[in-house]
Amino acid sequence: MAARAETEHRPVTLEDIKAAAARIEGAVVRTPTMLSRTLSEATGATVYVKFENLQFTAAYKERGALNKLLLMDEEKRARGVIAASAGNHAQAVAYHGARLGVPVTIVMPRPTPTIKVMQTEGHGATIVLHGELFDEAYAHALKLAEERGLTFVHPFDDPEIIAGQGTVALEMIEDAPEIDTLVVPIGGGGLISGVGTAAKAMKPDIQLIGVEAQLYPSMYCKVTGCDLPTAGDTIAEGIAVKAPGKLTAGIVKTLVDEILLVPERDIETAVSLLLQIEKTVAEGAGAAGLAALLTHKARFEGRTVGLILTGGNIDTRLLATVLLRDLARSGRMARLRIELQDRPGALFSVVKLFEQHQINIVEIYHQRVFTSLPAKDAFIDIECEARDAAHLEGLVTSLREAGFTLHPVEIH
Q1: What sign does the dihedral 129-284-20-204 (CA atoms) show?
Q2: What single string gives the DSSP state of each residue in 317-343?
């Protein structure tokens, strides 16, 4: 997907983005762009991370929302605004609307994480839950806007929103001018449109790589003509958009060099790595850029990559699940299903092997009834913690040498 000539007319220009930067200065956080030595070693690229999760609402969306609100006339502000959002755009509009005295109504899909609903309500917005996906919430918001005379603030397909999001690139290139590749998550395409416009104008040779969740390849299909399914439960709900913007799709076709798709497993791993290595919380959409480096490692080796950690609003229960699943995949946590005779001492003969290998038992489930084994037999499920996969494999070998039949319960 080669970028076209820089002279081609675009709805957003570098001048628009610079004007937005001046307009919002002081009201949004100028987040740091920092070199990650550990992520660089893990991926083979030189990796800089832009920590947009350090915004007050924990996401980059504040930039575009504030730019849009500041450009509205007083009459429209007084009547109020309405937006549709899976969460981060909602919080941004609600927060800056409250700061500016603008009444805000937000339509959110029903499955939106509780933390995002609560935080948006905390900024004083009126919340309407409607539909299962963004597209249904979006249609309902447009209906309410017409009925109530409210100004609709689009989450991505608006030049003023795009210009605000593009300020991310101004800061990144100023702080780390050596970046030669930008990796940007794509939902509706507002961020990559703004970032791409600014970056390509400042550094025409920079590579611009978009990233979508494999379950929601809507922009990829739009610009390539592919017909892939766009549905499913993704941890990256912030970029789970079935239909990208018309305006943004045109900009993406013009500027973006390639769009990469990433599986759920790698998005989960990226969330876990960012917490372990950078000691920072990323939501699924926010970790999508790092997931691309993990999925397509050879594509980025030797390059100087700028990742935008777009947001950090993730439900704490979901975060806990992601971290535990990562422990299981790495062999540091496991569940072993072991068959044994149901008689005194049988369980002790298993447990003593755990003690010998210094592997901690977390829980034991003893099942005699709901099993296809003979009535004199049973099985136990043991959840345990090991140092690493090799440590666990030593225990498994000893159990089998002792005559036990066991089946590791694996996740994918």
Answers
A1: negative
A2: HHHHHHHHHHHHHTTSEEEEEEEEESS
List residues bridging with 35 in a β-sheet.
48
Q: Where are the domains of the chain?
A: 14-60+158-325, 62-152, 332-408
Tell me how far the alpha carbon of residue 10 is from its chain's centroid.
28
User: For residue 225, which phi and psi values (nearest 5 degrees)?
Assistant: 85, 5
Q: Could you give the 3-state DSSP secondary structure of residue 264?
A: helix
The CATH number assigned to the domain with range 62-152 reads 3.40.50.1100
Greatest Cα pair distance, the chain, in angstroms, is 82
Q: How far apart are CA 355 and CA 375, in angstroms?
A: 29
Residue whose C-alpha is closest to residue 282's, from 60, 103, 112, 96:
60
The overall pTM is greater than 0.85: yes
Cβ atoms of 341 and 335 closer than 8 Å: no
| Beta pairing, strands 333-341 & 405-408 | antiparallel
pLDDT per residue over 116-172, tens digit each?
A: 788 889 999 999 999 987 778 889 999 999 999 999 999 999 999 999 999 999 999
How far is the C-alpha of 44 from the C-alpha of 294, rounded, in Å? 10
365 DSSP 8-state letter:
E
Q: Encode pLDDT of 79-107 as tens digits.
A: 999 999 878 999 999 999 999 999 999 99
- CATH number for the segment(s) 332-408: 3.30.70.260
The tokens 């540091």 sit on which residue? 332
Determine how many CB atoms are found less than 10 A away from the CB of residue 32.
Answer: 13
Q: Do domains 14-60+158-325 and 62-152 have the same CATH topology?
A: yes
Residue 184 parent element (H or E): strand 181-185
CA atoms within 13 A on the CB side of 342: 13
CATH tag, 14-60+158-325: 3.40.50.1100
Q: Are strands 207-213 and 181-185 parallel, antiparallel or unpaired?
A: parallel
User: Which structure tokens are listed for 38?
Assistant: 């550990």
